[in-house]
Amino acid sequence: MRGVDWKKSELESIAGLARQSPVIGVASIHEIPASLFQSIRRNLKDKVRIRVSKKTLILQALAKSGKEKIEGLKPSMEGEVALLFTEMNPFKLFRYLEDGKVRSKAKPGHRPPEDVWVPKGQTPFAPGPMVAQLQKAGIPARIERGKVVILEDTLLVKAGQQIDRSKAEILSALGIQPMKVGLDVRAVYEDRMVFGRPVLDVDQGGILRQVALAAGQAFSLGFNARYPTRATIVPLLQDAHRKARSLSLGAYVPTKETIGDLLAQAQRGMMGVASALFQKDPDSVGKALKGMVKAESKPDSTAAAGEAQRHEGKSEAPQAKEKKEEEGAGLGALFG
């Protein structure tokens, strides 16, 4: 009776968790040390409820939960597995657990998730059988200054390739830990859909690059087609303003924004004409304008200006008076 009561209680408990949780995952716990598993459970207690039980009870409990298409998790329950109950998005759950994995040594038969490289450089090993062992595994090595030295970076095991005993011993001796140990998510259920590992294991960096590229292309299309959206309206208005201002300046149409530039442009034209006339006949331009032409032809430095004042023998007061006359001359000075 005690066994029957335990099974009934376990069944109801798992079914209740399944009914309460919008997201249910199945993760492999194969070869996870007990101490690491307990640590993972503690770290996840605020985000994920982990439940390990007999497979028959798990299947019965999921069926009893009433969730549609929950049976899609059944193919992922081979071997030692745990159920994950959470409110996290399936993709966030997968990435969170993948990032939480820890490095560990490789054992014979393991298949590393990434390429395993042996870096070049000096090792802590003294001359001995290690040189032959490295060379047999395809790792170029020799003795230098009483130490075994690996001559170049070497790809020892490709991702997904099985590690044999010899390579496992080499990696262990070199302190290389190619394996990642933790909850290995196989499938996640949410809203009548089951996401397998190939779907969950997305390249986030690649996805972000694709989204950024698509956003840039969409912006270029909207901008070039003059299609106003939240992203294009400001650049479109700025472009229209810039073109309108350029048109106004080119057509010499005075507006509140262009009048200053048009007057400055006219001033420069006037000074160009005055300088040309002054060079041919200094008396052909008015007195005030003549002073302005002279002022522009003088060096800007204070020392040069002082030297010119001493050379001409003029006092400071007449110069100040002449300067005021020049400033008030305007365009009419050309004909003064």
If you had to describe this structure to a student in words, what would you say it looks like?
The protein has 336 residues and is an alpha+beta fold. The protein folds into 4 domains: 121 residues, Alpha-Beta Plaits (2-Layer Sandwich); 62 residues, Ribosomal protein L10, N-terminal fragment, domain II (Molybdopterin biosynthesis moea protein, domain 2); 34 residues, no CATH class; 77 residues, no CATH class. The chain is 50% helix and 15% strand. A 5-stranded antiparallel β-sheet has the order 2-3-1-11-12, sandwiched between helices. Strands 6-8-7 form a 3-stranded antiparallel β-sheet, covered by helices on one side. A two-stranded antiparallel sheet has the order 4-10. A hairpin with a 2-residue loop joins strand 11 and strand 12. Helix 1 packs across helix 3 and helix 10 crosses helix 11. The longest helix is centred in the last third of the chain and has 22 residues. The chain is elongated, with a radius of gyration of 41 Å. The termini are far apart. The C terminus is likely disordered.
Q: What's the quick description here?
A:
The strands form four sheets. Strands 2-3-1-11-12 form a five-stranded antiparallel beta sheet, sandwiched between helices. It has a three-stranded antiparallel beta sheet with strand order 6-8-7, covered by helices on one side. It has a two-stranded antiparallel ribbon with strand order 4-10. Helix 10 (259-280) packs across helix 11 and helix 11 packs across helix 13 (316-327).
Q: How many structural domains are formed by the residues?
A: 4
CATH class of the largest domain, please? Alpha Beta
Any idea what the radius of gyration is? 41 Å
Low-confidence stretches: 301-308, 311-336
